[in-house]
Design brief:
single chain; 185 residues; alpha+beta; Glutaredoxin; 4-stranded mixed β-sheet; 36% helix
């Protein structure tokens, strides 16, 4: 018969191993906690480990704002295969003026956005949020305008950057997404 102390020691060791493994499994690119747009509660990007991530810096008053519709379509079509579209509202280009709640309402009411959105933050320069700082350090093209897109593979590594002119339904972006979804984590 196993003593309670032996049982506890084994369980504690197993739990500790799982915690360490989980912490190590989160790639550096996703090892950030930012605030959610809708409620400003902490949102760990580690939950997207093993998924393909399309990160997009967004704005409500931009000529490319209509891309929300295409981004939501990508989210709906490929979510079950492991794609996560992440929106990062930013006023870096002076085209995002509202509060986080106003931005959330605009995205949902105007474009039916259901993909995860993070609270407004900077995406370029020394004041960029940690996620974007990491992307740039990995070699991503810094956003030169709103709706730059960053495709991150299941392994957490940057695959490619796409400028604002790349529409969510562009052949090159969809091809890269589909190829990434087929890759094993």
């Amino acid at each position: 018969m196993t003593s309670p102390l032996t049982w506890f020691t084994r369980c504690f060791g197993l739990c500790l191993t799982l915690v360490v493994h989980t912490a190590q499994a989160c790639p550096a690119s996703l090892n950030h906690t930012l605030l959610r747009l809708q409620d400003e509660k902490p949102h760990s990007l580690c939950q997207y480990t093993g998924k393909v991530v399309l990160a997009v810096n967004t704005a409500s008053y931009c000529g490319f704002t209509r891309q929300y519709k295409g981004l939501e379509a990508l989210h709906e079509k490929y979510q079950s295969e492991g794609l996560v579209v992440l929106g990062f509202p930013s006023n870096d280009f002076a085209q995002e003026k509202g509060s986080n709640q106003e931005i959330a309402d605009f995205c949902e009411n105007t474009f039916g956005v259901k993909f995860p959105m993070l609270a407004a933050s900077s995406v370029k320069g020394p004041q960029a949020n940690p996620f974007f700082k990491h992307l740039i350090a990995q070699g991503a093209t810094p956003p030169r305008w709103n709706f730059y897109k960053y495709l991150i593979g299941r392994d957490g590594k940057l695959i490619d950057s796409y400028n604002s002119m790349t529409e969510p339904d562009s052949r090159s972006l969809i091809s890269a997404i589909e190829k990434s979804l087929k890759a094993k984590p």
